[in-house]
Amino acid sequence: MRKIAKILLCMLAVLALYAIGGQTVKAASYEEITVDYVTNYSAMENAEHMIRSNFQIESSDNNKKSQYAQFTLKSDSYVKVMSTYEYTKGSTYVTKEVKVFSNVGMSAKKMEIVWNWWDDKDSYAYATAFLPAGTYYMEISVRDASTSGVGLTANIRTSVAAIPCSQLLKLSSTANKNRTNATVKVAQTLGSNKLDMQYCAGSIGMENVNNGVYWKVLRDDFQGRVGNNRYEENTLQSSSKLLADTATSFSVKQNGIYTIRITDHQGNAYLKTISVQGVDTKAPTVTGVKNNRTYKKTVTIKFKDEKGGSGIRKATLNNKRIKSSKKVSKNGFYTLKVTDKAGNTRTIKFKIKK
User: Fold this and answer.
1) CATH number for the domain harbouring residue 251
2) Co-location of 174 and 303 in the same domain
3) Which residues on adjacent β-strands are paired with residue 164?
4) 267 — phi, psi (to 5°)?
5) What angle do CA 44, 74, 68 make, to 5 degrees?
6) Range(s) of the domain holding residue 346
7) pLDDT per residue over 251-286, tens digit each?
8) For position 309, what pLDDT does the model report?
9) Is residue 294 in some structural domain?
């Protein structure tokens, strides 16, 4: 009995080594795929660092064959997993899958490429996703579902290319000459795989990348381009604005944080923020007189635009232009207006009664 108990304990220990996250590990080892780091989507399409594997499949038993691989991202990245299936023997009904998981136990799926059609030639497909830095595990499989008994030899090539998220959106802002607004320039590297871009006032975190409270959301029943009722319109989606397909900039009238969201054709979305400064939203400062005050003596009016402002455009006292350091001594009611080049105006009404 003791011997049997020891054997059972050993078996349980072995099983425990393979159980991660409640699911048995499917692979004894993972072949390393080197990630091709590129700077734009065009280069991503041409990435060719691939592993190769050959599978012999007996179609009569509907057999599934898999190879396991892994890749490591050194930074948060936009990732494209590409797979090509070449057939050197057989032409049958084939199910092909590439699945990417974030854990070695292969229970937390992050990406998936699935084919399921009659195939009489080589086939190619891909999937994209935004993935955090870390190591990912892949199951690359093929299943011959025919009963012809011919069998199938499949040569599978799989590659991983990545654009670091830091390079996806390059943002800059510049205030115009009069500082009435600022232009935010947006350079994106998804190229032909960019579906759209939107922007929203405020700092929106990645946890809200698909939150309709902030962003216009793609409707499942519309596949047209922007302008063809492609987006939901409701009161929740209050502040995001879509950029035209060819737009590379947008204009804002307030300083502060803005969030830009880019979405690809597969529905993946990513956010980046920019702090906009330089818009003049403050009226000039005035000394010597205060609003709704009465003075029993001569006053000296001084005004200026604070540092970083657009500068004084004009100042009037009872609709007559004046300069700073203007002395006023006559009894009466006065209205002072000082306007800067951005259009901000300070109005002060006062009275002199000696």
Assistant:
1) 2.60.40
2) no
3) 77
4) 90, 5
5) 75
6) 285-352
7) 999 999 999 999 998 889 999 999 999 999 999 999
8) 87
9) yes
